[in-house]
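Worked problem 6 (solution included).
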Amino acid sequence: MSTTKIKAAQLWGKNKDDLKKQLVDLKQELAQLRTQKVAGGANSKLTKIHDLRKSIARVLTVINATQRSQLRLFYKGKKYLPLDLRPKMTRAMRRRLSKHEASIVSDKQRKRQMHFPQRKYAVKAAEA
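Solution. The predicted structure is:
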């Protein structure tokens, strides 16, 4: 039974199997404390329950973060990326043309620019 708070810095160095094992232990301990609370345990159990829940959340956060980083490495350089790994941005920003698509000039537009270029006017400066 680990009644002390778990620091996230300690978790980052562990591998997935150790983290899963620690998660199972924490959940078992939480179940025991909850049964003791129902049976009429002391008030100190409530703070331990709180600490255990937060420790479980830390372990899950480390597991999920490492899993996402592994997925990012796996999909690096691939054509498509899973939706949850893509940048969030806003809906409008996700739907707008890419820089490449916006810079493309059609044949018709290219001919129009070539045959009818922007006119240049020489404006005489006003004498004061």
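Discussion: The radius of gyration is 30 Å.
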